[in-house]
Design brief:
single chain, 162 residues, alpha+beta, four-stranded antiparallel sheet, 2 helices, 8 strands, 18% helix, 41% strand, globular
Length: 162
């Protein structure tokens, strides 16, 4: 009987991890659900060719999770390929909180409420350029700063999400 109880408990734990994620993490949405949310918010356009869509990392702001999505599209039919690229901040319900256009910079990883970038970026082409974006107010306010990559602090939560 004890053996059956252990097997049932183990099955329940595996099921909980598969359905709800480990440590109470919310289930991860499909790429189709994310793309639908981006289309509804007019971040992506069906007339452009989607060439890259990825979940880079998740920001933690005011105790909430905000997935960071990297989107790259190509405008078809122009003599030289022209890209439309964006770093998109979503809330847990997949509502777009902020979309930041970029040319050749790339989001690398998150550390708390900060997003580390490859390259220098000025948010909305206004203000100072930097390679660290610090988010506040559910992503509505962004501070831009610069640090040499060798100075970036590793956080105990810096782990790849699988």
């Amino acid at each position: 009987m004890r053996r059956l109880s252990i097997i049932i408990s183990l099955c329940g734990l595996v099921t909980a991890c598969l359905v709800g994620g480990i440590a109470g993490e919310p289930p991860r949405p499909s790429k189709h659900a994310v793309l639908d949310a981006l289309m509804k918010a007019e971040v992506t356009d069906s007339k452009r060719q989607l060439v890259h869509l990825s979940h880079t990392c998740t920001l933690m702001l005011e105790g909430q999770r905000f997935p960071v999505i990297d989107v790259r599209e190509i405008v078809p039919g122009v003599p030289s390929p022209r890209g439309v690229n964006a770093i998109v901040i979503l809330d847990e319900r997949l509502h777009v909180k902020r979309a930041i256009s970029y040319v050749d910079q790339r989001p690398l990883y998150c550390a708390g409420n900060q997003l580390m970038l490859y390259g220098m970026l000025a948010v909305d082409n206004v203000g100072a350029q930097g390679n660290i974006l610090t988010f506040h107010d559910e992503g509505q306010r962004i501070d831009v700063s610069f640090a040499e990559v060798s100075e970036w602090q590793a956080s105990s939560t810096d782990q790849f999400e699988w």
